[in-house]
Specification:
There is one protein chain. Helix 1 (11-28) runs parallel beside helix 2 (49-58). The protein is built from 4 helices and 7 strands. It has a single domain, classed as Metallo-dependent phosphatases (Purple Acid Phosphatase, chain A, domain 2). By secondary structure, the protein is of the alpha/beta class. Strand 5 (110-117), helix 4 (128-138) and strand 6 (147-153) form a beta-alpha-beta unit. Helix content is 20%, strand content 18%. The structure holds fe (ii) ion.
Length: 211
C-alpha cells in the first residue's frame, strides 16, 4: 500500500506547489492514500473551506490539524460539513469536528487516521495517549482497519516518546504509519465494514472486536 503524508503545508507558496504536483504524484507513484497537514495552509494560520476543497479536489484523502486548527474562525463551522478534515482528538468533548476517521483508500483498504496534539509547550488538552489508545482499540488493525495513520502534533520528544515510533529531537510533527501484510488487504471481511469517514465505534454487531 502506498501512502503519502505531506505537512506542514504553509501559506500560498505551500499550497501552490502542492496543488501543482500532487495530482501527478498520485498518478506516477500510484498512491493509494494521501494525508496532508493543513493547519497552516491559510497564510500560515489555519485553513479555510475554499482551501480544504482545493486540497480534496487535488486528491487529498484526509487533512489533519493541530494547534492552529481554529485560527480561521470559519473552520469551527465548516469542519462539520468537511468529513476529510480532522482536528486533534484530545480537544475537550463538545469541540466541533472530529479527530478520527475511517476512510476508504483508492485500493479499497480501510485507513484509520487519528490526529492528536501534545501538551508540553502547547494548550492544556486531554491526554493524547489515552485518546489515541481508545481509537486504536475501537478500530483494531487487521480487523476493522487495514492501515493506521497517527498524526501527533507536538513540541518536544517527551510528549511523543511513548508512541509507536521515536521522532527526531524537537520534531514538531511526525506521523506513524502501521500497515499489515498485503494478504488481508485483498480479503477484507465484507460484513465488517464500518461507515467511511467515521470512527469504528459505529461498526455493525457482526464486526469482530478486539480482545
Ligand atoms: Fe502547529
Amino acid at each position: 500500500m502506498r501512502i503519502l503524508f505531506v505537512g506542514d503545508i504553509v501559506g500560498r507558496s505551500g499550497r501552490a506547489i502542492l496543488l501543482e504536483r500532487l495530482p501527478k504524484l498520485i498518478a506516477e507513484w500510484k498512491l493509494d492514500f494521501v494525508a496532508l497537514n493543513g493547519e497552516n495552509a491559510a497564510g500560515g494560520f489555519g485553513i479555510t473551506e475554499a482551501i480544504y476543497q482545493e486540497f480534496v479536489d487535488a486528491g487529498a484523502d484526509v487533512i489533519t490539524g493541530g494547534n492552529h486548527s481554529w485560527d480561521q474562525k470559519e473552520a469551527l463551522v465548516f469542519i462539520e460539513r468537511a468529513p476529510k478534515l480532522l482536528r486533534p482528538i484530545n480537544f475537550p468533548p463538545g469541540t466541533p469536528g472530529r479527530g478520527v476517521a475511517l476512510i476508504d483508500a483508492r485500493n479499497g483498504a480501510r485507513v484509520l487516521v487519528v490526529n492528536a496534539m501534545g501538551r508540553i509547550f502547547m494548550e492544556a488538552l486531554d491526554d493524547p495517549f489515552a485518546a489515541v489508545e481508545r481509537e486504536l482499540a475501537a478500530c483494531p488493525l487487521k480487523r476493522a482497519a487495514d492501515a493506521v495513520i497517527v498524526d501527533i502534533h507536538c513540541e518536544p520528544t517527551p510528549s511523543s516518546s511513548t508512541s509507536i515510533a521515536r521522532p527526531p529531537a524537537r520534531s514538531r510533527r511526525w506521523a506513524s504509519i502501521a500497515t499489515a501484510a498485503p494478504a488481508w488487504w485483498s480479503a477484507p471481511t465484507p460484513t465488517c465494514r464500518p461507515p467511511t469517514t467515521r470512527s469504528c465505534r459505529a461498526a455493525p454487531p457482526s464486526c469482530p472486536t478486539s480482545a
